[in-house]
Amino acid sequence: MFAYGQIKTEYKLGRLPIRAYASARLIGDSRGLSRQVQPQYLSESSLIFGAGLATNYWHGLMLWVEAGRAANYLDNRGGIPRMAADYRGGLALSKGFGRLLAGRERGTFFEMNDDAVFLGRFRNDVVFYSQNRWGYTLAPAGALGGLQAQWYWNVDAGADLRRQHWANSVETGPGLRFRWKWMPAPWVFSVNVVRGMYTITRDNPWGRWYSDVRVGFWHAFTR
Question: Structural domain boundaries of the chain?
Answer without folding.
Answer: 1-87, 99-223
